[in-house]
Amino acid sequence: MKSAKVLVALFLYGCYMVRECLQHDNPEPVKTALLQTWAEKLYFELWNCGEYITNRKSLQSKYNKEAKLEGRNGHILVANISSVIKSMMDKKQQSLKRILESVEQVAVSAHNDAPPGDEYKVRNAKPNKATPHTNILLNDLKENSHFYHTPVNATYSSVHIPTYVYDRASDVIKALKWSENLDVAFRKNYEIDPRLSWQYFGSTTGFMRQFPAMEWPDKPDNTEDLYDCRMRPWYVEAAASPKDILILVDNSGSMMGQSKIIARHVINTLLDTLSVNDYVNVLVFSNVTNEVVPCFKNLLVQATLANIRELKLGVENIADPNNISDFSIALTMAFETLEMYRERNMGAMCNQAIMLVTDGVPENFYELFKSHNWKNGTMGMPVRVFTYLIGREVPEIRDMKWMACANHGYFVHLSTVEEVREQVVHYLPVMARPLVLHQSHHPVIWTPLYADVTDPKMTDYLWEKEECQQQYHDTISYKETKDQFFYPKNKAKRDRDRKKKELNQNLNVNRQKKHNLITSLAMPAFDKKTEMNITVRRLINDNYWVWETRETKVAHLLGVVGTDVPEADLREAMSPHILGVNNYAFIVTNNGFIVTHPDLRPVFGDILKPNYNSIDVTEVELVDSDNIARVFDRSILTLRDYIINQTTGDREITVKYHYDDMRRATTAERHYYYSIVEGTPFTVVVALQEKHFGYRVKIPDRFQNLNTTRSSLLDYFKDDEWRIHPDWLYCRYAYDDGDDTSFKTPEDELRHFLKRIAKTDNTWNKWPPPRFYSESYDSKGSTLPEEKFDGKCYCDKDLMLSLIYDANMTKGIFTEAKNDTEKKKKTEFEKRFGVTLAFVATHSGLTRWMDYEDKPKTPLNSDDHENQQPHFIDENVYSIEEVWYRRAVEYNMVNDESYVYSVPFENENIKSTLVTASQAVFVTSKENKKKGAAAVVGYQFRHSALQELFLNITKQCYSETGCTPAKDTCQSIERDCYILDNNGYIIASENVMDTGLFFGNVRGPIMKMMVKEKIYNNITIFDYQGVCFKRENEDDSNSSSFLYTPIHHLKQLIGWLIGRVLWLAAHSNFQWMMSQAQAIFEDVPDYQEDEESVYSADTLANFKIEGEKALKYVRINRTRPKSCDRVVNLYTLTSKIPEKVEHKSMCARPYELRKIMNTNLILLVVNGRCPETTKAENFDTEPKEVDYEEFNNSLNCHKAFYSLPRRRPKTACIRTHPDEHEIYDKMCGKGTITTVTPITLSIVFFLCLIL
């Protein structure tokens, strides 16, 4: 009997398994009728909620009633923008000429003045606390919005003196004294041009006089101030014409110890004095000669920050000194390389120089110089030679000095580290001598984009500082949490946080606020005195020396004068409100590098990227092609050639572009219009999507002069629930003189001017526009305009009127009276969807919003702010530049009735997740049906409400669809249901934790099928501004290839203590650690509760790692940032979805989908009965580094080998003068006499670390 029961049981189980297998092989198809019904019900709910909450139709009707359209003409737009920028630059140039004339005049008059005495005091921007008697306090400094809200005094200037420059040296103090007279020119310039930024004079003695006066910003962590104006782009470019530099560094056996350290500092300092118009390479030689960067073989590379960094890494990696140096081979190789570049018109195409760094030479190599450098006589030698003799105990210096003197160079003897930076820069005035001798020609240079006073060499240091902070955080966390520290959930959270930090590199140029990005104009200032008396020794009768005074030729560079043009001013000059949404303008230099562009992303976190200012136009304008990385399409290369050669014209190109933190992408046809900015190396380009965004809204005539609306102006802005674009200039006072002209917010400023406009008749029409440069002066003319700007303020009338009109249109849009039925419906949808906020943003930069009662009111500065989401308006004030605005306008081209929905990506706090929905409001022309974007409306609601709606609808079964609840609804185990957006991100799922994830990361095989069937299109985006993080392996023999930073060196010195410090932090009971850790880990109990609810006690015990073993897990993996290319595959929904595809079996296409009407969403149902593929096939949308195997995965090597063409600056190349030989006989170098001050000694150690 028992055996019979067993047989029956086995039989029944076999039948069940056969049934299951049959069902698995022949699963029930997804009911398309049921799917369609679900999609329709979702549409009905979402559509009606949006219409009731946003009141879109009412706003649409208002705009269509009287607004008109105006076409955008690309040729006119680019001509206007280039004209405005030219006028701006002309005015800056005139200011420079006034400063220049003042510098040269007061310097001549002060030639015979004795240096001031000990009683002389200076207004030092960073006063030396040790010697207060030498400095004048900077009084009455007031915050000024025009100077980045820095406290300034606009009645006088202040000076910055490098830490290692002795400010009481006779030549320094004398120049400080006479340069005080520049304040008159500074003040006059500011009176004439109120939009003038910082003005400054950088002296060859090292100090910089800057107007208006300011206190120098404190350095983080009390690090030493290493700023030296002579190392900044504006100084090095103006001081001499562009140059090719070959640095030869001796690596023979004698270059050991201190000599090697000094040599490295010399090379690094030389590299720091180069700009992007210079070309350089570093060769290391002993018995053989090689490039320090092997892939730069036989090349001179452009001196971009990235290439300079690569060369410095190569210098750090030089092998230990050995053998005997063959100078002939090294010098010959250098001369031949420079000759090749001259003959082929490559490189800088102007000055050339060899920098020889050694501890001694065996001879003067007369014959070598004669054959390579004196082919046309000593008057026409193409290459200068500068020699740097290293070490205290050195042989006879005569040969090294002769080499420099005979080749129009300069000789320096360096015996200590602290004198390197001051002595190395002596080569710049020498290369400037031909310019000085010509006297009449003062070339104007424009720098590429760069960061104000930020030292780019600090990138590695700041990143290591962040990692140290992370290490401290993890150590304290381990101290506090112990058992929970290694729980999978906690470890995963730490990994996610670090990953987010590394991926946080998509902040574009106008959203980052830490660094002041600028371009500068600069001109060299010459000493007008061309002769001077010098005293020399002369040999008489073979053994008798006498002193005699003689007159000799001199050519002294006084310094460089300059002024800044903020990148924000250039963006403002492009009138983004006229260009409109999804259109933009940008500026490109003669090198093809971007000065300003909406996709310029210069920082990762708050740190400057290693190559932030050498981003090529081909790296931001991506052609829609299938080319691999850095194989640029011919169409963009042709456009680039037209741009860098400063022609005027237009071209159309189909491009692809990304947005929303590089999570979304699309393609479009753009029409590029380009025009030269005359007298500068810049070209302006306007990019228009004319097919869809070729028209802009024009306000009706009744608003043009505000004749009928003046009294109502303030009524349009009565409440506080509105913001304006913070970077657009509506109206502003010319000078920020104090409380009456300074405002806390842009909204306060706008209210102030609205009151003024409301009280006046039409006098506001006389206020000049912000682009009041329109009446520009001829930059080539000799007459300098002296007219003072007589207006108190200026306004952009077009923008201001558009703003007032939009305010009128949108006033009360969310509270307009409705009938009782509509009010009831609206209230019903508010509650059902948990609506938290409604908003509208307009093309004039206005954003209004209305909070609903269930919106949390807790301010962000409350105790619980870490667990809150910021208010919508805290992060969404840029109107047409916001992602939801751009997406809504763009999707209007697909469906003009569609709302666009989105959720935060990978949101960890699901309970507070909000859904954002937006739809564009267009004005449509009655005559030609053309459209122009006027505004975008939208709202936010609880994701939990959408989740509930989704589950409720998809669990329903309808008899007319032939549905079986147990099999066909989303509650069935046979069906997996999702709502996806048009880029493949999950908006809703049966598993709420999927929200915000990319669908390919959850169901990769299904996503790949949809891409294959053209439901989603793949768009490959290359990120040529990427930063990757190379892991530092302490056991790696190549670890020295990283740039040494202060933290790195300190770690080397006390490296053996690291493990002990971590051990103490983890196991000691220091109260200060406890108190700091408590604030950081307030939510630790939550970790314990969550983990223990998932894992058993035995499993939890396995997570406990203690003692020395724990240290290797607590210690983070150190990394170094490096420039890299990244690639990411993004996806976009096709406009026409193929809903029915024939397949041989049901599981060949194990899903069905339907578009949710008037949304950017699809409802996707996956057949759960079909075989599940492995999870390994899942994929995400995170960028991956591009490997360049041809060059050992070195991006810089790849770029150097496949370098793009450039055009040298149009400034004249002045590299020789017939009188120059009269100078070099007696003034081509000297051995240094080192004066070491206490301040210098205090920073020697820090200099050793950072260089």
From TrEMBL:
Tagged with keyword Membrane: yes
Bilayer topology: Single-pass type I membrane protein
Signal peptide (from-to): 1-23
Source species: Acyrthosiphon pisum (Pea aphid)
Domain VWFA: from-to ranges: 244-428
Pfam families, A to Z: VGCC_alpha2, VWA_2, VWA_N
GO molecular function: metal ion binding; voltage-gated calcium channel activity
Protein name per the record: VWFA domain-containing protein
Superkingdom field: Eukaryota
Keywords per UniProt: Calcium, Calcium channel, Calcium transport, Disulfide bond, Glycoprotein, Ion channel, Ion transport, Membrane, Metal-binding, Signal, Transmembrane, Transmembrane helix, Transport, Voltage-gated channel
UniProt cross-references to InterPro entries, sorted A to Z: Ca_channel_alpha-2/delta, VDCC_a2/dsu, VWA_N, VWF_A, vWFA_dom_sf
Lineage of origin: Eukaryota, Metazoa, Ecdysozoa, Arthropoda, Hexapoda
